[in-house]
Amino acid sequence: MATMTSRWSRRELPVGKLVWTLLPTGALLVLWQISSSLGWVDSFLASSPTRVLQATWLYATQGTLWADLVTTGRLLGLAFVLSVLAATVVGLVVTRSAVADAAIEPFVWFFYNAPTIAFIPLFMLWFGLGAPTALALGVLLGFFPMYASVVGGIRSVEPVHLKLAKVLGHGELRTFRAVLLPGSLPHLMAGLRLSVGRCFVGIVAGEIFAASSTGLGFRLRNHADRLQVDASFAALLVIALVALALGLVLRVLDTRCNRWRTMQ
Amino acid sequence: MSPTEAAGLAARDPEVQGRPAAAVRRRPGPRQLTSTARRLVGAASILLFLVSWELAGRLGAVNPRTVSSPSAVARELPWLVTGGLGQDYRVTALAVAVAFVGSLVVGSFLGVASGRHAPTRWGMDPIVTLGYTTPLVAFVPIVVLFLGLGVPAKIVAGFVGGVFPVIVNVEAGARTVDPVLLRAARSFGVTGLRRVCTVLLPSTAPFVLVGARIALGRVLIGVIITEMIGGSQYGVGLLLIRLGQGFQADRLMALVLLVGLAGTTVIGIIRRLEARILRWRP
Amino acid sequence: MVHHTTESAKPVDPALRRASSPGGDDADAGRPFIVLEAATVEYPGRGAQAPTRALDAVDLEVQAGEFVSLVGPSGCGKTTLLMAVAGLLELTDGSVRIGGRQVVAPGPDRAVVFQEFALLPWRTVRRNVEFAFEGGELTRRQRRDRADEFLELVGLRDFADHYPAQLSGGMRQRVGIARALAIEPETLLMDEPFGALDAQTKVVLGEELLRLWERDRQTVLFVTHDIDEAIFLSDRIAVMSRRPASVRCLIDIDLPRPRPHDIKTAPEFNEYRQQIWNLLHDEAAEASREPN
Hints:
The complex is a heterotrimer. Chain A is mainly alpha-helical. Chain A contains twelve helices and no strands. Chain B is mainly alpha-helical. Chain B is built from 13 helices and no strands. The longest helix of chain B is centred in the last third of the chain and has 38 residues, at 192-229. By secondary structure, chain C is an alpha/beta fold. Chain C has two domains: 31-109 and 187-292, Rossmann fold (3-Layer(aba) Sandwich); 118-184, no CATH class. Chain C contains seven helices and ten strands. In chain C, a hairpin with an 8-residue loop joins strand 1 (32-43) and strand 2 (52-63). Classes of the chains: A mainly alpha, B mainly alpha, C alpha/beta. Chains in contact: A-B, A-C, B-C. The interface between A and B is large, with 77 and 75 residues.
């Protein structure tokens, strides 16, 4: 009975599910293409899937796609590292000292819920145009989710595990590696995923407003300002794909880390 | 004391929490503060921050022209009320309200549909994933491109920001309705629209609130960004940009503070509502 | 009318199985009210798997005003049977009739009491009772009064404005019972209603249930795996076989009513307990040897 079941589960491909997943989106794309080709809407303004794809192709082969990716990527990497580092340090301090926790709380409360996007003009005033503003924005946005998950993660470690480590005479570092890190890992991974996403948002936002010559956000703004619809969509598409890719990478990392965690 | 001990024992150890101060001090780990103490420390910390900021400006450590100072900001606070900004506040608030309500209604409907009907969920999945993962900022230039620099663009941008978190959260809620409750409803002849209203909807309320909270933040961001990008006539975002371009750091700071506090307060209200509703849960 | 649908039960003192008709009167007595004929519920298998039978050609007749318990090994399908009578489940084969009419859907003549209480957590106790009869033409005031009336019956009138989360398990189930009684059903279908409660609360609620039942003498189908509870409460016990469920044996409980709570120590009680335990033991032992 058991073998028959598994054979059938493999046979029962989620074909139905696949069709259902692709159908609505596919239908919309087709509708868009048709309405544009047939001139139901002003094809100049509305663009079409084929034109967007063409524009993307041009962007990649003759345009500045790679340069933009590198610029944005570098900023993202830097902002991410900085915000994670800062969040970890502050998080450790806060879980160690109740006073620090109470002292930081009002600031965290303010920045966590406030529309941080309102800081853009302020940052532009302080840092001028260009990379520093985008970087500052990225760090600001990426810091708080990571901070919350560091604190949450450390606090979620079972106290009894720590007591156990102490009783068994484990040192600081060993306790950290064997108990604290695996214990807080799920929170940390969630925090990393949120943080890199928010960092990316901050960087792109900074580039849209304050970038001078290169970067994905700048490219999008540039084309849109010049009413170049196809190229704008292309830039948007690239940004969307990068965001998805980041999420995917983090999810794979998450699975890997979970495996590591269960092997501790 | 090691951070590892401190971290674990401080917050979670049930023996530490709730015990009188004397007992608490005996155990290893940081002292727990009472909530009054916490508030005092918090207030002191804010004060310390303001004082050092003020001093930094006066002593020339930073340029008070760009960074402003607490005293200068305080001086500009009245301007927030009297500076003729009423129109700007109204326009932004209205756009946010419309976009928010719109995204709640549409998002809830779609969320319930996809929560209860798997093929709908599958079909919406690519669109929702794309819409939610892509940075909202990136949509705005395109929205402005199509809709121009007016109120419709703001509302649409806000809507795009708010609808996806609502869909995702309401969907989660619709999927977790207690089947026993549904069965009980059916046994008493409660079906169709009555069942949706009396069982399905209340059951998903906590999820709707979470979605609403996230959506509100995103709607606000969407509207303000649209105002910042476009040369709309009125709006808080527009104000912010103009103040920045005019190097009016003091007023800019004051406005940023106002916007920040407004956002935090409204979201705080929703959070409190969430906590209230959580009381039902056994 | 006692049926032996499958093989041997241990030989039983015939004195213990005198046919008894419950306290009902003249025209209804002796006439079957709830009738299951060859009731079968089968779930289709996935792909090449064989379909699963939850109920296997069950025959059962319950008279009006009778309190019948369904006792059997866990997972044997007693709940399925109950749900079929409630109209919440469709039969694959056979029929279930109440008062001569076939059951196709839930109706106001039957009320269900669930093991998990099934109270709406966002409504007060009173509003939960009202939930049972909201669709009708009563005014708000009338609904309120009616709910209060039934809450009074179960002793929870003072908690009418509380929320389920504030109540103990026993109290929640009382609300469930009040809700069921509030539609004044002819039949009460109870699915292990006290299964989630502690032993003492069980006993207390069992006695209360009998007290409430004595008022209107509804026909009751009571699912449980607690033998003592079944014997204490019922006029008749249907011992079910393991899955696929069928009625293995029907046992008349010839104990006087009202039942004092020390009846549990009476020798007759013990004999019933032995008898049922032996029947169940075989079934349970075989069931535990089967893969799920």
